[in-house]
Structure formats: C-alpha cells, structure tokens
Amino acid sequence: MSSPLSDLGERERIRQDEQPAAGTCGIAGVRLVELVRHEDDRGFLYEMLHATDNFVHKFGQIYVVCSPVRGSIRAFHRHSVLWDYFCIVQGAAKFVLALADDEEIRRYRNAGEECVPRALETYVLTERKPALLVVPPGTWHGWMALQDNTLLVSTASEVYNREAPDEVRASPDVFGDIWTVKGR
Question: Given pLDDT bands bounded at 50, 70 and 90, which one contains residue 26?
C-alpha cells in the first residue's frame, strides 16, 4: 500500500459537478476541493490543507466550531482581507455564499426587504465525502448544520483581531428563505 503522502500531486481535484461552469457567474475565488480519503484496517486519513496549495494565500489560525443541534445557522458575514477554508469533519452542513454590496444590505436592514444578491451559490459538505470550501474576501457566507453535532474545521488566512475584527455581519434571512431544505 502506498503512503498517503505519495499521492500529494493527486490530492486536489475540483468537483466540477458542483462548481459553476466556465463562463457563468460563479463567485471568483470560490473553490470546492475534493479531498482524497485514504482508508485501511486502522481507519482513515485525509489531508485538508498544505501551505504549498496554490489557493492558500496565507496562514493565520485554525479553529473548530460545533453545532450541536441540526438546523443551527451561523450566518451571514464577510471579510475584507481574510480568506476562509472550511472542512466538515463530522456531520453535514449547507453553506451559502453570496455577492452583494454593503449598500444593498443596509437597504434591506432599514426597509425590512429581501436583498437580491448578484450571485448566490450553495454547497453541501459532509464527513462522508471530504472536501475543502475556499471562500475569498468580500464573499458573504454562512452555514447551517444538517445533522446534530456537526463539526467544522476552519482555517483562516489571518489571526482574529477581537479589537478590530475583519467582518461585516448581516442576518441569516438577508437573502430570503435560503436555509429551508426543499424537496426535489
């Protein structure tokens, strides 16, 4: 059996079926990287991020977030400088990414109207099919746990500054009813 580290050149594969097609209005800089899971009789291993990955801009910190109850929503915010790299290691989560001007968000807050973003993308990440979601600065983002005890490992390009956080916040319903899981 080969070592997981011998596959480093092969570990990144973009999931084309979940990415916007070339030439459409996908959000620039957003990537969904499928992670290669190596399994044997001892269990499994997958690598989430390397300093040498071409989409890693800088390393700031890593943190873990647990949503103990399915349906918990953590949204929305955006950063001016910080890049986020998200991986669900337990459970499942729905991520929503959007592009909207701060003025549109303010108008929504003041008038109580729904903000229509220039672009809106949804991704489902699960422990069963490991992936890394890359979110660039300027992109509104949030996530909802689809299972109890969902664990997110987040890597940020910057260290969080409590005195001057690089974030602008908006309510979870700023873009309308996007969290409801609808039948297909």
Answer: confident
Alpha carbon distance 183, 60 (integer Å) = 39
The whole-angstrom separation of Cα 141 and Cα 84 is 10
Q: What percentage of the chain has pLDDT greater than the value 70? A: 86
DSSP for residue 50:
-
* Token pair for 5: 């580290």
Domains present along the chain, CATH in parentheses: 32-159 (2.60.120.10)
For 112, other C-beta atoms within 10 Å of its C-beta total 7
pTM of the complete model: 0.84
Weakest mean pLDDT among 33-37, 100-104, 165-169: 100-104
User: CA–CA distance from 92 to each of 69, 123, 179, 181 (Å)?
Assistant: 11, 11, 14, 13
Q: Where are the beta strands (DSSP E) in the chain?
A: 13-14, 31-34, 38-40, 43-45, 61-67, 73-78, 84-90, 92-99, 119-126, 131-135, 140-145, 150-156, 168-169
The two tokens of residue 130 are 């490991």
Backbone angles phi, psi at 101, to 5 degrees: -75, 150
